[in-house]
What does this fold into?
Amino acid sequence: MKNFKYIIAAALTVMTVACEMDDLKFGRPRSRTGTEVERHKKDSTAGVEVPDTAVWVTAVSYPEDYYWRYDSLEDSNGAVLELYCNSVKKLSIPTGFKYRISSYGDKNHFLDGAVYSDWFDGQNTYLSRNGVLIASWEGRYMVKGLMKDGDTLWTLASSRTGKGLLLLKNGVEAFRADNGCVFGSVYDSACPTGGFYETGGRKCFCYYEEDAAGGFKKNNYYTWVDGKLEKHDSQVENVDDMRVCSAHVFFVGRNKSDKDVVRVVMDGTQTLLSGTRGLSIRSCKLMEIGSSVYISGIEYKDKNSRNTVLWNSRGLVKRFYDRDCYFYRNGDNVGVIDTNLMGHDTSIDYLNRREDTHYSRFVNPRNAVFFDGKPYIAFDWGDDGFVTWHNGDTSYVKINGYAVCINVTVKKK
It folds into this structure.
């Protein structure tokens, strides 16, 4: 423990993202010119008055008579992608093949006051900002990380065939690994920019290659840090996650003989964390919040029952019995949204106290964000749309659809 100077906590992050698999070959992206990339500055949100503190909710709205929970028509369903600011609709974007905008929530992302959408057809992938095409490249990819840095847009994309990644800078290829698999995704609740992130003033992402023999076994681990590629030894047989945190490289996972033990490796130094004896720990994930590194993971009692466990370097901090937890950056602290195992009975946990919301349905980690010490949450309102909740205050938006994500922005003085 002496060599592991960061605080460690373990808890659950539950989100399953389905990936379409096919056998299309990889191809070189078609780079877009600077003029085409600059089109994002001329979109339909220009001139929209934004309050000092703005609560943004991206949502998908369907025709009134369409049963979207079944969604038999998929991207031919007439859905509209909508952007709300403090519960007032500011933007509507039509979806479908004609517009190359998907109605699927996992293909739409809010960043720096705009909605970004990724779309793929049989050959190419397209990226739009507020409905305006800003980049396209060959191959079928899904966005794993998205970051805006001044006038530069970084996009980290993973092939839908299961292997292969691309890093794009303003729509132009900056790096590719044809056998690479990205660690992280846009559903990482503790990292709003997903698998591409900044730490210690450096831009980073991590990836692995699968064993040539097949079987989805992870092999060959790499970091990309400000353009420098470096290979690393995990020292762990089964790696769940890898992350650059400040100036350090972390792995988390287990050896084959481990069941109730989690192995954390920092710059080659290994630390063991113990769970409840006899209970297996799986799906571990690394998070950097403030100057601390945390671990999320699941402690299984049986196939239908699981706990969330919190540790630090001194031992057990807290155990959430039969609760699913999503972890967020709350300044330099950790904010937790937890539910029962069915996604109902939602509570907020600040580690030292709990707060009930009195709303039941929370299933998407992107539907919450902590800002200025308090959470903002977009709850499912059944068949009547969604409700935003903050510090006990609520605002209802009635649509035939659902919220995709919630964010808070503040005007710079």
In short: Residues 37-42+50-161 form one domain. DSSP finds one helix and 33 strands in the chain. Residues 52 and 413 are 9 Å apart (CA to CA).
